[in-house]
Design a protein that fits this description.
Radius of gyration: 18 Å
Mean pLDDT: 96
Strand content: 15-25%
Distance between the termini: 32 Å
CATH architecture: Sandwich
CATH topology: Jelly Rolls
Bound molecules: succinic acid, manganese (II) ion
Number of domains: 1
CATH superfamily: q2cbj1_9rhob like domain
Order of helices and strands: HEHHEEHHEEHEEEEHEEE
Strand order of the largest sheet: 1-10-6-12-4-3-2
Number of helices: 7
Oligomer: single chain
Helix content: 10-25%
Shape: globular
Number of strands: 12
């Protein structure tokens, strides 16, 4: 799937694109039916909520689960990002965020590129997030919220938050958020929140400021996030473990469009467990 000129223009203006019901219910079922067994695994790559045993974020399922390995090569997810970055991509991060009914915790205001720069030394923001809803997202189950156009500010001031949730994040303070929302239109469109059926997809700039509130509803909000980086812009430091920030910069080759409903062979390098090397970290900068 490629983007039209109009979509590309809109993306540059707003910093995101929304594609309601892009994947069929059959495609979504083949993904969501895999989630409970992935969340049951007692491995470090399953981050659980601070005050419960429910999974907040599962990392790197594309390296040990066939359905998610196919999603990681899906042309409806990869091609639009190649169109925008005009380069082959590698997978920087792959997450299945739970935000489970009643227990799903907040994601504070942040930019993803802030974390990728500060922690991973990713040279520029030539990277993108693309999310797919495995559950319907409504105003009740903690939808993502964006400040439209905020990506144009580049990297903004952030602080390393290690306490609010179970996952460390570079977060943006309230004064700056108020300013950005005001500039984006205040109560008239200064915050937006794309909502829709399972199978909907959102593409958003790595500098777009975003957050989500907690899920007090009885409805899960499982979503998958692919963070795709232009190959030439690969990270220059392995400060974080490899299941969080990947170190394989091989360009992604897409599978056919029907890959979620048909059998295709995919490589699962971590199917027998995470290699010891993936837990090793270093503050050393990699020279290109
Ligand atoms: C994220 O910002 O990485 C996730 C936010 C969410 O799932 O609500
Ligand atoms: Mn984020």
């Amino acid at each position: 799937m490629n983007l039209t000129k109009k979509q590309i223009k809109q993306f540059h203006k707003e910093g995101y694109l929304f594609f309601p019901s892009l994947f069929s219910q059959e495609e979504i079922k083949n993904l969501s039916s895999e989630v409970p067994k992935i969340y049951d695994i007692r491995e470090e790559y399953n981050f659980r909520e601070k005050d419960s045993d429910l999974v907040r974020t599962n990392f790197a399922a594309h390296l040990y689960n066939t359905s998610f390995a196919k999603l990681a090569r899906h042309p409806r997810m990869i091609k639009p990002v190649e169109d925008l970055l005009q380069e082959k991509l590698y997978m920087h991060q792959f997450k299945i965020n739970g935000k489970m009914a009643f227990e799903g915790d907040v994601w504070q205001w942040h930019q993803d590129y802030g974390t990728w720069l500060n922690d991973d030394l990713m040279p520029s923001s030539r990277a993108m997030n693309i999310a797919i809803f495995l559950d319907e997202v409504t105003e009740f189950n903690g939808p993502l919220i964006f400040i439209p156009g905020s990506h144009k500010k580049g990297v903004v001031q952030a602080n390393h938050d290690l306490t609010t949730t179970s996952y460390p994040l570079w977060t943006i303070n309230n004064n700056l958020i108020s300013e950005l929302v005001d500039r984006a239109g205040g109560r008239e469109g200064g915050i937006v929140s794309p909502k829709g059926k399972a199978g909907s997809m959102i593409l958003f700039d790595s500098c777009l400021v975003h957050a989500s509130s907690n899920n007090l509803s009885p409805f899960n909000r499982v979503s998958v996030y692919l963070s795709l980086c232009a190959v030439s812009n690969h990270i220059r430091r392995f400060k974080r473990k490899e299941y969080i920030a990947h170190r394989d910069f091989t360009p992604i080759e897409c599978l056919p469009d029907d890959c979620l409903v048909k059998d295709y062979k995919v490589n699962l390098p971590w199917k027998d467990g995470v290699p010891e090397s993936a837990y090793q970290t270093s503050l050393k900068e990699i020279i290109k």
